[in-house]
Amino acid sequence: MNDNKYELIYRDLANKIATGIFAVGNYLPSENDLRRQYAVSRETIRKALLALRNEGKIQKIHGKGSVVLGTRPALTSPELKGFTEIAASLDDPTNSRLVQNDSVYVDPERFFGREETIVRANAPGAQPAVLIGRLREVRHQPVSLDRDYVLTDIVPTLPDDPAETSLYAHVEETVAPISYAEREITMTQADWDDHQFLEVQLGTSVVVIRQKVYLTDTRLALLSESRLDPRQFHYREFVRRHLT
Amino acid sequence: MNDNKYELIYRDLANKIATGIFAVGNYLPSENDLRRQYAVSRETIRKALLALRNEGKIQKIHGKGSVVLGTRPALTSPELKGFTEIAASLDDPTNSRLVQNDSVYVDPERFFGREETIVRANAPGAQPAVLIGRLREVRHQPVSLDRDYVLTDIVPTLPDDPAETSLYAHVEETVAPISYAEREITMTQADWDDHQFLEVQLGTSVVVIRQKVYLTDTRLALLSESRLDPRQFHYREFVRRHLT
DNA sequence: TATGATTTGTGCGTATGTATA
DNA sequence: ATATACATACGCACAAATCAT
């Protein structure tokens, strides 16, 4: 949590949109009104509005004002959050079960695409990692089978109870803030684990979301793979055509 | 194309990153150097860098500089572009075949999720639209079956040859700039058309990307559905954890 | 049609704070 | 400690789009 002015204003406005105080389709107060209300400069207001715009919460219309567009939630969404963090914002009961916890070697270069990520210790590009496999349940139904490869060189420790704790929170507390990720979504054939845990038929398709998660200093901290039942998969995002 | 200073600088820097003049892993010149090189104020430079950062092309590190991260291309990517526009940037030969061209009524409220989009003319929420179905081929292989529902009330005319022309370009020339879209990715069972055109087996899974495409004034201009062979589907995007 | 008021967009300058080396 | 580099914040001027008169 930052205490920047524009971020505080951003959160206040985002909250007022989420709770309907600023209703969808209506205009926000003008930048000059907001400037007076928050007693800041116009540039500070504009930074807050830009952040809302980039997330698709408002649309700025030249000469008119800022229209409230609405809000989009989902379990699998463009936000860079861990399951534990998303679960905290859901009403439904959620559960994580540890199903794997091994020391392995991985080659991050082979994580995207359809190659094998786990390699021999002496393979070129091999890095030591801890593999944590967790089955995620919402409303007591399995929704995803997650495997995180935590790079030991960057993240030397792990939470005491990996099933209960947010990996992201642990990394940010013990190493450095998580900053960004490259994400890949593909489809593949269900394997035995998918069949066992996600209760999908062998050989049918499952959705695979892979992420390379980086710290603020661009160091790669972990690889994560999430396998989902295609019947439950729905991914929503907001995309813009232009910078401005 | 805008002729704003910061956008020109953005494009110049993006181009130098794409062509390797600024190599991955290296630092860009400092904001002060860039300010001198382009003979603009520091804020203008910072706007250009912010745009690069938001697209995952650079990472700004406080007190150090801006590291070049790299570039990510793909046929199905987070950019809001039509197939014709993406095809223009590919080396491979591409082709579009018109397979459908009908007048229908749609209910945009029913476009996301798993409901029927095409409704009766007198249904509540029904809007007139032209359905344009096109089979897209790359390297003479079918890659996607696209259906665009162009809302007649907003876009009254259509290009003369819908198979060859970019719908997006036509909308922007005759109506208003396209600004943003809500996108949904799901999976469903292949139907007869998928089997015929995409050459996938009946009943196996296909990827469905649906988009609601809006103009700068927030009017909904068209609905588009893209159905893809899951074996060829790979979607890559860049996501950030924080605003700053 | 034209004009002025309002609102957002772009650009510049300056000052201060904070992180890095 | 000092210099460098990025981050935040304020203020100002003018351009461009919109709308009511």
Mean of pLDDT of chain A:
92
How many distinct helices of chain A? 6
Q: How much helicity do the residues of chain A have? A: 10-25%
Cα-atom Rg of chain A, whole angstroms? Answer: 21 Å
Order of helices and strands of chain A: HHHEEHEEEHEHEEE
Main beta-sheet annotation of chain A: 6 strands, antiparallel
Outline type of chain A: elongated
Count of β-strands of chain A: 9
DSSP strand (E) fraction of chain A?
A: 25-35%
Structural class of chain A: alpha+beta
> Uncertain spans of chain A, ≥5 residues at pLDDT below 50?
none
Q: Termini separation of chain A (Å)?
A: 27 Å
Order of strands across the widest beta sheet of chain A? 3-4-5-8-7-6
Describe this protein's structure.
The structure is a homodimer. With about 240 residues, chain A is α+β, with helices and mostly antiparallel strands. Chain A contains six helices and nine strands; from the N terminus they run αααββαβββαβαβββ. Chain A has helices at about 5-20, 30-40, 40-55, 85-90, 165-175, 190-200, and strands at about 60, 65-70, 95-105, 125-140, 140-150, 180-190, 205-215, 220-230, 235-240. Chain A has a six-stranded antiparallel beta sheet with strand order 3-4-5-8-7-6. In chain A, strands 1-2 form a two-stranded antiparallel ribbon. In chain A, β7 (about 205-215) and β8 (about 220-230) form a beta hairpin. In chain A, α1 crosses α3 (about 40-55) and α2 packs across α3. The two termini of chain A are about 25 Å apart. Chain A binds a DNA duplex (21 and 21 nucleotides) through α3.
Concise account of the structure shown:
The structure is a homodimer of 244-residue chains. With 244 residues, chain A is α+β, with helices and mostly antiparallel strands.
